[in-house]
Amino acid sequence: MQVLRADYALLPSGVARDVQIHVQDRQIVAVATGGAHAVNEIAIDGLVLPGMANVHSHAFQRAMAGLAEWDAGGRDNFWSWREAMYRFAERLDPQSQLAIARFLYVEMLKAGYTAVGEFHYLHNRPGGAPYAPAASMMEAIAQAAQETGIALTLLPTLYMQGGVDGRALNERQKRFGKSVSELLDMRTAMRDKTGVAQIGLALHSLRAVPPPAMREAIQSVEPTSPLHIHAAEQTGEIEEAQATLNARPVEWLLNEMHADQRWCLVHSTHINDAETASLAKSGAAAGLCPTTEGNLGDGIFPLEAYLASHGRLAIGGDSHVSVDPAEELKALEYSQRLTLRRRNVGASASEAHTAARLWSLAALGGAQALGLGAGAIVAGARADLVVIDTDHISLAGREDTALLDSYIFVAGKSAVRDVMVGGTWVVGDGRHALELEAAAAYRAAVTRILSD
Ligand SMILES: [Zn+2]
Fold first, then answer.
1. Would you state the pLDDT for residue 75?
2. Separation of 293 CA from ligand 1 center, angstroms?
């Protein structure tokens, strides 16, 4: 049993002072404010937050972040970015996948992410031939998680066709293609692997998976398995869905797939008022990826209406142009301020501080989306904790909730000091034991890929 005594902690009721957190095995077993000092108590001079889940990651994209920031002539958009991503993906193999994911997961932990949902569709060799074993690329992901200590929810991703109209995969997309049975076989092989905390299922998108295959795959997995899908990221996708399915994507997923709290609808950017209310009511999480959505020019999520309807949200790093939960939440709030020309859109009558409200909602919604039983500092939750350095220069003179405000809106990840995942400290004093080795291997792998 570890007994932590924190100067401050973010509890479901808000930021509290002098909080005792009892951790046994992988779980928080008791939380109390004040109270007598225990023998062997560990003093935490900082602000303890529930760990944040990064619900949407394509690890390999970390290595191409920044490579698409130029215009090739004409109007650069999501689809031209996707071509650049396909070209990069062609050069990856299980070894470089491991080097990239390992470095990324160290970065995530140091930034305050305690869990990651890996939406993995890079299954085959270039040209489409399977690896032996078929799940080699996913094994690299699991190994990276196991070595770095991040909680991994693996989301093997079904990808079958090149568009809603059922057209075949193009040459580059053949790396992603699996039938339902092939994907389920790989999923079974990965289910009990070391490093996999939870296994779910991802359907790449309405573009890539026909409805009958979607139903078959969902019916074949455990009834509690997390289900993720890219939805309504682009307006072009809305028009395609309306033309072929006679419904908007989120509307269709709610009505035809009965999306509920098992589901994470990644992006959900372009939703109308009815979809906003229905998605909130469904209990599914909206998987928002604010820095990637900004980078790709996707659009702006209707946060205010969604929160007014008590919708559940989670955040994802997606393309990893940023690896920092504070920056994601700040970008989410800033997109609202710029559109509405108001401030503190994420605040509410019960929590006036935007940072506290958004962190609490995203931690809880993220843990739900990854099926992890975490996301709050309460008895019974997984002991995934992040300690913010209250001596950070940007937090000088702050107390209570103002510490969290300055962490999210000013300091960002530079204020993350210690991180615990499932009861084990994996980052101490801003350092991860593997950081130098992981960075060197990453540099070598990426340099090799880009010099080919
Ligand atoms: Zn994505």
1. 66
2. 10
Q: Write down the catalytic residue from 56, 58, 318, 324.
A: 318
> Cα–Cα distance between 332 and 329 in angstroms, integer?
5
Active-site residue flag, 45: no
Tell me the per-residue pLDDT of 379-411, one tens digit each, with 9 for 90 and over. Answer: 999 999 999 999 999 999 999 999 999 999 999
Please tell me which residue in 22, 204, 230, 267 is annotated as part of the active site. Answer: 267
Judged on CB neighbours under 10 Å (0-12, 13-18, 19+), 113 is: buried
**Is the peptide bond prior to 133 cis by the omega test (within 30 degrees of 0)?**
yes
What domains can be seen in the chain, in order of their start residue? 2-49+377-435 (2.30.40.10), 50-370 (3.20.20.140)
Residue 15's nearest CA partner among 415, 357, 390, 401 is 401
The three-class DSSP label of residue 211 is helix
For the segment 211-222, what is each residue's pLDDT rounded down to a tens digit? 999 999 999 999
One-letter amino acid at 45 equals D
Tokens of 233: 């990221």
Ligand 1 centroid, distance to 209 Cα (angstroms) = 15
CA–centroid distance, 282 to ligand 1, in Å, is 22
What's the 58 CA to ligand 1 centre distance in angstroms? 6
Q: Is 258 a catalytic residue?
A: no
**% of the chain exceeding 70 in pLDDT:** 99
263-280 tens-digit pLDDT: 999 999 999 999 999 999
Task: Check residue 32 and give its pLDDT.
Answer: 96
Q: 24: which DSSP letter? A: E
The overall longest dimension of the chain from CA atoms, in Å, is: 67
Q: What mean pLDDT, rounded, does the chain reach? A: 95
Q: How far does the centroid of ligand 1 lie from the alpha carbon of residue 165, in Å?
A: 21
> Comparing C-alpha atoms, which of 63, 138, 141 is closest to residue 102?
141
Q: How far is the CA of 2 from the centre of ligand 1 (A)?
A: 37
